Amino acid sequence: MRRTGSTNIIIRRLIRSLIKASRTHDAPIWRAVAEELSRPRRRRVAVNVSRINRYTEEGDTVVVPGKVLGAGILRHPVVIAALSFSQKALEKIETAGGKALSIQELVESNPKGRNVKIMV
Fold first, then answer.
1. Helices H, strands E: what count in the chain?
2. pTM for the structure as a whole
3. 9-118 in CATH: which number?
């Protein structure tokens, strides 16, 4: 039988740690993020900065289980955790006064997952 799921060991470890954090801290948001990350690569989300700007307010925390792209303008500071960022997206997040994190860093700083939005 063929192995299914991601072959990238870093993503596999991240999925396992998200499931564990979901169980230990009773936070279903991390299980939902793990399920989104376990999709095939071609079905993972790619979210533009303009979409994040449209659906968030100042001071919000957002998780993107995929890549953040730099199309559009970010007008307010937002904390964004994602699997990866394009270079333009990082520049736009920092100029708006926001913060870019890895998903693992967000789990460590907010294990309960309170006030976190998932952008799909």
1. 5, 5
2. 0.92
3. 3.100.10.10
